[in-house]
Amino acid sequence: MFNKYTLELRYPFTTNPSSTIYGLTFFEAANGWYNYSDYNPFRLRRSVGVGGFLLGATGYTAAIHVHSPGAAIAFLALASGAHDLTLPVLWATTTDAGGRFGGTASGFVNFASTLSGMLAPLTAAGLERAFGSFHAVFYAAAGLYVLGAGLWLIIEPREPPPS
Questions:
Q1: Under DSSP, is residue 141 helix (H, G, I), strand (E, B) or coil?
Q2: How far apart are CA 136 and CA 64, in angstroms?
Q3: What is the pLDDT of residues 81-127, one digit of tens each?
């Protein structure tokens, strides 16, 4: 069985006949099940994780290539918002994957997140110094988001952790 949800939002920023500009955002979530007894239309964690991380990577990469400061800020906001979209799913998956050690697993994820937040300014300064541009920082962030999306594809929170 396969289940898919799609939400699309279009907004006209300008409807000038010589230059009509629409903003488009969409969200898709899906999951598949081997049999009907396992079917749950609300279990869409991987889709949200993969989609949120790929959307974040897209936002960071696009921010480098636009020529308008306003557009760059909008793409950085998209990257940040896409990351925030994944947070509830991250915590639910961490708790489920941790089983009876769900609190410990959540604590480790919180520690890793705090550590990366502490090291990010130092890493960003080092990348800028090494490459002479902050483009390297955004490419590194996009690459980490793509790696994170790949990791979402292999986690299976319904399987109990090894004893």
A1: helix
A2: 10
A3: 888 888 888 888 888 888 888 889 889 999 998 998 899 999 999 99
Q: How many residues does the chain have?
A: 163
* Mutual angle of helices 135-154 and 69-98, in 10-degree steps: 30
* Span 30-83, pLDDT tens digits: 666 677 787 777 666 777 788 889 999 999 999 999 988 888 999 999 999 888
66 touches 83 (CB < 8 A): no
Tally the C-alpha atoms within 13 A of residue 19's C-alpha that lie toward its C-beta: 2
What's the Cα-to-Cα distance from 33 to each of 36, 40, 49, 97, 159, rounded to whole Å? 7, 8, 18, 19, 14
Say which amino acid occupies 75: F
Show me where the domains of the chain are located: 1-43, 47-163
- Chain-centre distance for alpha carbon 89: 11
Helix (H, G, I), strand (E, B) or coil at 22: strand
Instruction: Round to whole Å and give the CA distance between 113 and 1.
Output: 35
The count of other CB atoms within 10 Å of the CB of residue 126 is 13
Structural element, H or E, at residue 19: strand 19-32
pTM over 0.85: no
